[in-house]
């Protein structure tokens, strides 16, 4: 591993304070370079895009630069496949609305009970139009999604499968390419919520073979902003949800009603630039190789800190890890949830707060999973969600605070 943890932590001003931040799945800390970019946009190029005068042309180019940056980040074939918006929740709602013309009474959508509600609720809205929504449920004991169960749910009326790349509670990494193969074999499209995956691993949408892929930049060291990738041919098929004079071929703009937040788009480039810099520091060439190398170092750092936490949790007989117990890079991200018998999860977190460590309890908007597991009466799970800027020393500090709480 070549990750320079001291360099990493210097990039995040908030880390110089007293708090340990382990609620990153709710929102990571922000890079100073991101804030600098936002400030620079607002103070030097804050005009509407698309005009002929020079400041507007500069603003336009800065927004295009954001599309190019995120196209590289997810390995898209075309920057025009990048749709930007306020958040994953809003972008999936945009996608759901834009799919109205493609979905007819009797058509079927499959969602999972392990997803954040952002990738469930918008699709349930179509039930009012006669669309059938089916749930692909995880095994209540193993908490795994079985591909055989998905195949059993598929019919010739299945138009869309919706799944998370990594659960924001379980931390489990799902086999998206395999799920895509099942969906496509049945004539359906695949929509992936990648919010809980994007901060942790390199994304390659071409290799994943999904049709839509969405994540939130504020979980990836940036501002409150979201990015959706879609295959160009699929985006062209979607309804225009902007003004009537935007044609169906106006991609991606027909899916960005009211225009995007320009300063956040430009600021978000800093997140891509940061990961690429990590990769260059590891010896990779600029561009896609550096992004992949940067995430390789990120993944190894997170494996180490996850293993340290898992070792402690597994040593306690009262603890149930809600998700895979493996800390292997291929198996999970550094989001670890647990319960302590029937104890109220809030009580545990309340006892950790005085140690200036930010963790969390609850359902994390994946309420259907928590309800199905019968955990709502005890305030859901305790969740420790780490990223690469967390350290072994911080995990040890958390363990010291958890021991008396457990």
From TrEMBL:
Residues 20-398 form the Aminotransferase class V domain. Keywords: Pyridoxal phosphate. InterPro entries: Aminotrans_V_dom, Cys_dSase-rel, PyrdxlP-dep_Trfase, PyrdxlP-dep_Trfase_major, PyrdxlP-dep_Trfase_small. It holds the Pfam family Aminotran_5. PANTHER family: CYSTEINE DESULFURASE, PYRIDOXAL PHOSPHATE (PLP)-DEPENDENT ASPARTATE AMINOTRANSFERASE SUPERFAMILY. This is Cysteine desulfurase-like protein.
């Amino acid at each position: 591993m070549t990750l320079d943890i001291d360099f990493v932590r210097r990039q995040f001003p908030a880390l110089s304070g007293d708090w340990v931040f382990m609620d990153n799945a709710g929102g990571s800390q922000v890079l100073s370079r991101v804030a600098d970019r936002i400030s620079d946009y607002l103070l030097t190029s804050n005009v509407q895009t698309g005009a002929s005068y020079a400041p507007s042309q500069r603003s336009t180019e800065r927004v295009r630069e954001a599309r190019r940056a995120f196209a590289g980040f997810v390995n898209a074939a075309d920057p025009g496949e990048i749709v930007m918006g306020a958040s994953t929740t809003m972008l999936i709602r945009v996608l759901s609305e834009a799919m109205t013309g493609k979905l007819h009474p009797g058509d079927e959508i499959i969602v999972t009970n392990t997803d954040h509600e952002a990738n469930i609720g918008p699709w349930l809205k179509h039930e009012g139009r006669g669309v059938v929504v089916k749930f692909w449920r995880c095994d209540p004991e193993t908490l795994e999604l079985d591909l055989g169960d998905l195949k059993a749910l598929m019919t010739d009326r299945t138009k869309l499968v919706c799944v998370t790349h990594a659960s924001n509670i379980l931390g489990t990494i799902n086999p998206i390419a395999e799920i895509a193969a099942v969906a496509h074999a049945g004539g359906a499209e695949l929509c992936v919520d990648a919010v809980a995956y994007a901060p942790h691993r390199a994304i390659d949408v071409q290799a994943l073979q999904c049709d839509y892929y969405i994540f939130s930049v504020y979980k990836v060291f940036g501002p409150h902003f979201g990015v959706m990738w879609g295959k160009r041919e699929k985006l062209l098929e979607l309804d225009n949800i902007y003004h009537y004079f935007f044609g169906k071929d106006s991609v991606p703009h027909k899916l960005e009603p009211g225009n995007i937040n320009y300063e956040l788009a430009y600021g978000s480039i800093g997140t891509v630039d940061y990961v690429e810099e990590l990769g260059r520091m590891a010896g990779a060439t600029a561009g896609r190789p550096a992004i992949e190398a940067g995430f390789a170092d990120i993944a190894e750092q997170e494996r180490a800190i996850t293993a340290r936490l898992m070792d402690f949790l597994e040593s306690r007989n009262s603890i149930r890890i809600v998700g895979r117990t493996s800390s292997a890079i291929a198996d999970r991200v550094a989001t670890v949830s647990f319960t302590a018998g029937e104890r109220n999860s809030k009580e545990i977190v309340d006892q950790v707060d005085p140690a200036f460590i930010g963790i969390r309890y609850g359902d994390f908007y994946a309420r259907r999973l928590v309800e199905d597991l019968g955990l709502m009466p005890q305030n859901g799970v305790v969740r420790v969600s780490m990223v690469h800027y967390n350290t072994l020393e911080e995990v040890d500090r958390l363990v010291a605070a958890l021991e008396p709480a457990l």
